[in-house]
Write a structure and sequence with these properties.
- It is built from 9 helices and 12 strands.
- With 457 residues, it is an alpha+beta fold.
- It folds into 2 domains: 37-81 and 235-267 and 300-457, paralog of FGE (formylglycine-generating enzyme), CATH 3.90.1580.10; 97-197, no CATH class.
- Helix 2 packs across helix 4.
Amino acid sequence: MDMKKFILLIAVITMLSSCGSKDRGELVGVQGKKWHPEKPYGMQLIPGGAFIMGKADDDLAGVHDAPAKTVTVRAFYMDETEITNSEYRQFVHWVRDSIVRMKLAILADEVGKIPDDGGIGEYAFKDADTANMSVYEKYMFENYTGLGPTGYEGRKINHDVDLVFDTAEYPDEYYTEVMDTMYLPLEESYNGQRTWDVKKFKFQYNYMDIREAARNRGIKRKDAIVKEEIEIYPDTTVWIRDFAYSYNEPMHNDYFWHDAYSAYPVVGVTWKQAKAFCEWRTINKNSYQKSKKGSSPVNRFRLPNEAEWEYAARGGLQAATYPWGGPYTKSDRGCFMANFKPVRGDYAADQALYTVEAKSYDPNDYNLYNMAGNVSEWVNASYDPSSYAYTSTINPSVNDSENKRKIVRGGSWKDVAYFLQVSSRDYEYADSARSYIGFRTVQDYMGTQVTKNSNKK
C-alpha cells in the first residue's frame, strides 16, 4: 500500500469514528453512572465545617492538653449510637461461621467429597465443580488459586448451605470432626455444657498504609500492604479485672451474649478489635454491593479521628461544655442528661448502675446518642499532650503507629463529669480492653457541598 492510500484510509477511519460518536468531537469527559449518595444504615450525616476544638473555658483539671484552636473537618457519616452487643455479635458470628465453613471445605477436599456426595460434601469449595464457572472465574482458579502458605487461598467457600449446630443433626462423622475442633475440650467444660473456643475466632484482613507509601516514594506497593490477624471475641473478664473486691460475675457471664443486653454498647473490645470490626463492616457491605448488578462499592468504614469525634459530639454548638450545651449535667427538670458517676459515687443517681441501652437519653443536635457518658469511645488517634500545637487546621489527625496510647473520648458510666466534657481527652493502650470503653464508626461523605457554616443561602 502506497503512502497516499494509507493516509486516505486513516482519514476515512477517523471520520467514521467521529460520526458514530455522541460527543461530536468535543472534550466532554468520560461519563460515568449518575451518583446518588446513600446514607448508611443507622448513621447520621455530619455536615463539614469549622469549629473551635479544645477547652473553651478554664482547664480545671490542669491537664493543658487541649488548648482551643479553630479547625475544619470534611463531611462524614457517623453511627447514631455506639456499636451494640447485637451488632458486634454479627461480626463474631460471621468470623466463626467463615472459619467453620473453611475447615469443612478443606476436610471435604482432603477426603474427596463433592456436593453430590451429601454430608460434608455439601460444604465443599465452590470450585470443586468447575463446569459452571465463568471464563474469568476459571482463569483466576487456574492461575491464582492456592498461592499462599495453606494452599487454599483464593478458593471460594460455600455460603449457600446452612451450618448445623445441633449435635443431633450433624450430617456425618467428618462434619462432627470439624465442629469438635471449634469447642473447648471436654475436660474444660462444666455443667454438661461445651462452649466455643473463642481463641479460634480470628479475623484476617489486609490494608494499605497510604501514609507510609506517601512518605516513602521508593517503597514497593506490596511492601505498603499490612496484614493483620486479630482475635475478635470481646474480653468478658474485664468486668472482674477492672474492679477489685467487687461482685460483677453476672456481667461477666451474660453481658455480651444474652439477648437482654443486645441493645447495650459492646465493651471489652480493644482498639485493634474496633479497627478490625470496621474492616469487616466494609467487606460485608461491599460483598452485598457486588451481588447487586450495577451497584458501586461503598467507602470504607473506620474509626473517627479526634477532631471528627469532637465536632460531632458538639452537635453544631460552639464552645459548649457538653453535647447538650451546658455547663450543667442536669436538665431544667432536675434529671441527669447522661449516664456517668454523679454525686460522689452514687452510680444509680442517673437511673443507671452500669451501661444503658445505646439509644438512651436525648440525642444531640446531630441526632447522635450518648456522645457523653455510657461508654468511652475509641478514636483513630494517638495520645500526645502537645499534638494540638502542631496538627493541621484542616482534618487534623495524629495517629503514630509507634505510640500505643490511643485516644478515648466521651467519658463513661464509671467516670466523673469532667470526662463527659466534649473537649476532655483520655487514653488507653491499643491492646487493652475495658468494661467502660466501646466505639462507633464513621464513613467519609463523597463530595464537599454539605457544609454547616458555608455562605450558601
